[in-house]
Task: structure prediction
Amino acid sequence: MREKCAVFGIFVPELEVARVAVYGLWALQHRGQEGTGIVSSDGRKLYKHVGEGLVSQVFSESSTDKLRGHIAIGHNRYSTTDTARAHHIQPLLDLEHGFALAHNGNIPDCAKMIKFLGERGVDTRWLSDSGMMLAVIGYYMSEENLALEAAIKRAWPLFTGAFSIVAMDHDKLVAFRDKRGIRPLSIARLGGGYVVASETCAFDTIGAQFLRDVEPGEMVVIDAEGLSSIQVEKGHETLDIFELIYFARPDSVVSGLSVNKVRKDFGRRMAREFKIKADVVVPVPSSGIPAALGYAEESGIPFDMGLVKNRYIHRTFIHPTPELREHDLSIKLNPVVDSIRGKRIILVDDSIVRGTTMRKLVKMVFAAGAAEVHLAIGSPPVKFPDFYGINTPDMAELIATYMTEDQICNFVGATSLNYISFDGMIKATGRTRGDFSTACFDGNYPLSIGSRARTLKAEPPTRIAIMASGNGTTAESIIRAAAGDKMFAEVPLVITSKPDAGVIERVKKLKKELGLKVEVAVVGKTTHPPTAKENLGAGEMSRAEEKAIMDLLKQHKIDLVLLLGYMRKVGSKLIQRYGWRDDYLSVFQARMLNTHPGLLPETTGLFGVNVQQHVLDKKRSRAGQTLHVASAKYDDGPIVAEHRIMVEPGETAEELFARVQKLEKENLVVDVNDFIVERKKFLKKGEPR
Result:
């Protein structure tokens, strides 16, 4: 999961507030790191400065000095849509009607706004949900000659989702919150004026005194007369519980609850629910620290910072080399070996979403010498996406939707996996279940998600055909993973070109062991020889062979073809239908992947141990494995995933090849599943198949 957004608003008469707003946004940086911006007013004119990047990168002395006036609103952005372009960075400014808006949250179904604006001639195709809200408010200000707060009240019924918003015109600051209070929003006093922010930690930074939260369904208006309140609709707060689990800063108070205390109580509750024999409690920095402290205090097991976070890692502006990409987690976290080696570790984190990062983390801790790694997770399994302003993955990406807890434990490689219970999580807050949105765990959405509800229906798994000519060890790993719900896929078809290929017997045993229905088809030059008119080169397919394969793929309704040690050159019609084409714009338009025991393009055309001999002959320092889209030239399609290892001194080609094969088996299931999930998302956008 990714941070949502942060909003900040300030109204202090006779004070130039832009610099204060910059520090407020800086305190809220954890909620959004893609872009930031401020709009200010001196009572006569609106000033704006926005940019991509962190607060410290966007605002300088000169840019801040140009933001004049005693009113300002600001925004830190993390995109919850696919449009992360600079022109969507907030606050959004409507110069024609003289107001600006900054939004934290999300309108999951904008149908009402799209219909309303469309009937009035407004093109919404390039507008985000926030942009549509701006347009609706602007319409009412113009057509009905309403003041900002009156226009907001008039537009309110069209805002069918989660929103905590600050808005402003030349003379006033307005803050308002949806009827369920999904996202937090608080008010503080500063000098002779007021401040509004997503979290109270921003108040501490600027020396403001917390007053209260903006109530669900309430609109607060701050102007020269002071602060006034309008209850636009009856509200009942169901705060997103992930604010307490992960998103809010631990020094914030959200809905009257100390975030740090609640997280420590999550840890205490876990220590009572599952008692683990271990030597040390280690948090995953930084959101896992309070829960780990609570676990250690309750259990009596020592706490230690066995993992250290590089606090300066935020966004990556310089693309890392392939070698560094292989160690992406190590760039952010490093193990303290003396705290880990030989010990039984309880590793505490806030949640598991896709499982891939946790898998790398567990591997890192074992590599540092841990004897055992027991996971303690401070939230229940995440089974549903969020539609209220958190950038959560689709359901197909959420590992808990298609794996049991035992399977997840096996997938991430932990000694044991222990989730806090749902009831235990709620009890740790001291509140009741009805006080929170827990949709990510139980699928109960307190605000309508409209047409998005269709995405919650179980999707059929991707149907994979494996084409292999060897002994089938790699094919077996894919079949077992699919059968064991470790992939969002099933394998109904295996095709081999050799009647004596080892994969045939291997699949036969798997079918018996696992009770699978898998057809094994032999299609090669012996079963489908070329005609007298065909002049084929080495390993090329005959037209009959290609047609037979095409017919099998169609018959079994195959979505994705995996070439796993398949020693035939794929025919042009097969490539045209399933592989990479020059007119494709995305790898996800293709449906044929090939795993290769080399780092392309240097080892294009080589196979097996010949690849590793080439690496040694050329004195390369690294070998590896590539998963790529199959193309007409077989080995030069776009790369989907790549993994590297160092060549060891004195190593033979056979020894190196064995290590590359091991590397392939460790990563192939995850890489293929990642491709499947991303392709499903791509197809949902209506892209050509």
